[in-house]
């Protein structure tokens, strides 16, 4: 069992220090879910690259590491809009270590990164597929296969939205997961999804929010007409992956935005309400295979 936490501030100015403190405090609320390592990902001082800081041990060890980097990270810089993701781990795949800690990254450039709670039971098949595509794995985790799969789908379909990349990726996964993604290609966007592991979204805003329905249920027929799988209901085989066809499903929450003139809003993603309740009492509980995306607030 692990704890995941993410924070997105849209048009709500926060210093980098405030963001880091908020992420770390969120992990402290979730530490009962895992305490062998912890990590966070946030935008670096140049505003282009993602910084990932991970540390073996309890959250306080991560906190100390972040304090030691204070002069390098420009804690005073103000971020009008920003996404940060965080994780506290109880090891399932791979021993407790910094490299096995989350967030896990897609590549050395950290184009995509993810935090994950759960166990992907077919990760070895996904990993083997990606290794044949030339991907190198640096950790022992099932999570690294997830984020590299998103990266692979992006290289094949660069015009897909962030949300769509995640939607396609999770159709290849078996097992349980709650996931929060961040990407340098999609700044100020956060995508979250779950299946079998808890995940909720807290929303803090001075105005009423609207939700836009986006289809997230998939056909078992592939776009190219070929049906193939690792198992009866999955789409990776050999060196090829098929993109499933979306079918509409009612009452699925996926994108949020504020109504009215006030666009300032904050979003909190967490494994349970203990990390959110101090910030807001507006909470949406995601259901299995929901994909929640925050884009442009």
UniProtKB/TrEMBL annotation:
SUPFAM superfamilies: N-terminal nucleophile aminohydrolases (Ntn hydrolases). Residues 2-297 form the Glutamine amidotransferase type-2 domain. Gene3D superfamilies: Glutamine Phosphoribosylpyrophosphate, subunit 1, domain 1. The keyword Zinc does not apply. Its EC number is 2.6.1.16. Residues 52-79 form a coiled coil. This is glutamine--fructose-6-phosphate transaminase (isomerizing).
């Amino acid at each position: 069992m692990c704890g995941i936490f993410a924070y997105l501030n849209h048009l709500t100015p926060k210093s980098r220090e405030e963001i880091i403190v908020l992420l770390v405090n969120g992990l402290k609320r979730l530490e009962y879910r895992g305490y062998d390592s912890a990590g966070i990902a946030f935008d670096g001082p140049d505003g282009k690259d993602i910084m990932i800081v991970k540390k073996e041990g309890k959250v306080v060890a991560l906190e100390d590491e972040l304090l030691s980097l204070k002069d390098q990270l420009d804690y005073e810089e103000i971020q009008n809009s920003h996404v940060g993701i965080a994780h506290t781990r109880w090891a399932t795949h791979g021993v407790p270590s910094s490299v096995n800690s989350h967030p896990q990254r897609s590549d050395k450039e950290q184009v995509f990164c993810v935090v994950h709670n759960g166990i992907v039971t077919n990760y070895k098949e996904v990993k083997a597929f990606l290794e044949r595509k030339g991907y190198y794995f640096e950790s022992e985790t099932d999570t690294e296969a997830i984020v590299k799969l998103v990266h692979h789908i992006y290289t094949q379909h660069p015009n897909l939205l962030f949300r769509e990349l995640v939607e396609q990726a999770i159709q290849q996964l078996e097992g349980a997961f709650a996931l929060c993604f961040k990407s340098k290609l999609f700044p100020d966007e956060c995508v979250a999804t779950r299946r079998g592991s808890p995940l909720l979204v807290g929303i803090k805003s001075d105005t009423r929010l609207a939700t836009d329905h986006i289809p997230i249920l998939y056909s078992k027929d592939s776009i190219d007409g070929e049906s193939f799988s690792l198992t009866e209901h999955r789409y990776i085989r050999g060196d090829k992956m098929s993109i499933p066809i979306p079918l509409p499903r009612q009452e699925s929450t996926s994108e949020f935005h504020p109504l009215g003139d006030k666009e300032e809003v904050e979003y909190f993603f967490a494994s349970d309400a203990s990390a959110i309740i101090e910030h807001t009492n507006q909470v949406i509980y995601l259901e299995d295979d929901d994909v929640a995306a925050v884009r442009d607030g």
